[in-house]
Amino acid sequence: MIYIGNYKMDIPSKEYIEDYAKIEKGNNMLGLALPYVYLDRFSPLLKDNNVLVGAQNVTNATVKESTGEISAEMLLDVGCNFAIVGHSERRRDKSETVSRIKEKCEQALSKNLCVVLCVGETREEYENCNTSKVLEKQLKDVLNSKMINENNMIIAYEPVWAIGTGLIPTIDEVEIVIRHIKSMIERWAKCNIKVLYGGSCKPNNAKLLKSAQGLDGLLIGGACKNVVEMQSIINA
Ligand code: PGA
Fold it and tell me: What's the CA-to-centroid distance between 118 and ligand 1, angstroms?
C-alpha cells in the first residue's frame, strides 16, 4: 500500500518531521506533501528515511518570466519526488480547470516529477448520481497523455464532500469508483496506474477503507499531522 500525507497550509516542526521519518512502514510506501517553503529544509531527512517527498502543487507555466510560480524543475532541485495536482481545494478556490490541470501534469511528467492527481465529485454531483461522468471529465484528457506510465502517475479518488468532513463513502461506493477509474486507466493510459482513496481517512475507519478491493493506498489530510494517527492508519 501507498500512504501519502497531505500537510496542507501549516507549519511543520522539526520534531514532527523527525517523528514522521521514523514511522514504521513495513512493506508500504510512505510519502509526505509539504508546503513549498519547507521542502528544501526537510526533504533530506525524509528521503534518508525512505519517505517520498511531495509538493502540494506545481505550475503549468512554461516560461521563466512567471513571477511567483514554482516549476517542476525547482521542485526536483529541492528534493521532491512528486507533486499533488488538481486537489479539490485548488480546483474550487484557484479556478483550476481540467485543461490547466492537464498542463500541470504534462509540465511535471516532462521533467520526470511524479504526479498524484486528485479527482472527485462534489456533494451535489454525488447526490445527482453524476460521479462517473465527473470522473471521466477529470481524467480523460490527462490519461490520454503519451507521457504517463505506471511509475510516474498515481490517481487519488477524493470525494469533495468527504474531505475534512468526517464523512466517507460506503465500501461498495469506493469499490465501484475504483473499478471505474481503473477501467478508464486501462482504456486511455493503457498501463497499471495505482489508485488511492482520500477524504476523512482516520485511525477508526482505516481498516474498513483498506478493505476496498482494488485500493492501492490512502491520501491522508488532517490525520497525517499526528504521527501516532498516521502510524495507526498504516497498522490498521
Ligand atoms: P482529510 O483531507 O483527510 O483531512 O479529509 C484529505 C485531503 O484533502 O487530501
Answer: 11
- pLDDT the model gives residue 159: 98
Q: Are 44 and 78 in contact (CB under 8 A)?
A: no
CA distance 105 to 59: 9
Q: Looking at this protein, which amino acid is placed at residue 29?
A: M
What confidence category does residue 165 fall into, taking pLDDT thresholds of 50, 70 and 90?
A: very high
Name every residue whose Cβ is closer than 8 Å to that of residue 102 and which is 6 or more positions away in sequence: 141, 142, 145
Query: What does the block give as the cell for 52?
Result: 517520498
| pLDDT tens string 135-163 | 999 999 999 999 999 999 999 999 999 99
pLDDT of amino acid 104: 97
Residues in contact with 209: Cβ distance below 8 Å, sequence separation at least 6, in sequence order: 168, 171, 174, 197, 201, 215, 218
Pocket test for ligand 1, best of 200, 209, 226, 230 (most atoms within 8 A of CB): 200
Burial 27-45 (b: 16+ CB within 10 A, else e): eebbbbbbebebbeebbeb
Catalytic residue numbers read: 87, 158
Q: Which atom of ligand 1 is nearest to the CA of 222?
A: 4
Output the CA 197–ligand 1 centroid distance in Å.
10
CA of 32 to the centre of ligand 1 (A): 13
Whole-prediction pTM value? 0.97
- Name the residue at shortest CA distance from atom 7 of ligand 1: 221
Q: Whose CA is nearest to atom 3 of ligand 1?
A: 221
